[in-house]
Amino acid sequence: MARFIVYLEPAEEGGYIASVPALPGCVTQGETKEEALVMAEDAIRGYIESLKKHGEPLPSGLDKAEVETVTVDVA
User: What pTM does this model have?
Assistant: First the structure.
């Protein structure tokens, strides 16, 4: 099993856009945060299946990802 960071951003038209930075182009959306995360899981599975099907290497270092936040005054 591998853990993936999923970014959730509010979509202009409503709902949320979910993107997976470790997998370029792996982007999906959902009406709620929960739905967007479920859709992201499905998109990740499909992405990995496609890599395997085409003999492409899996991204390395997936289990080493960490998330930190910083606060910056932008005023």
Answer: 0.83
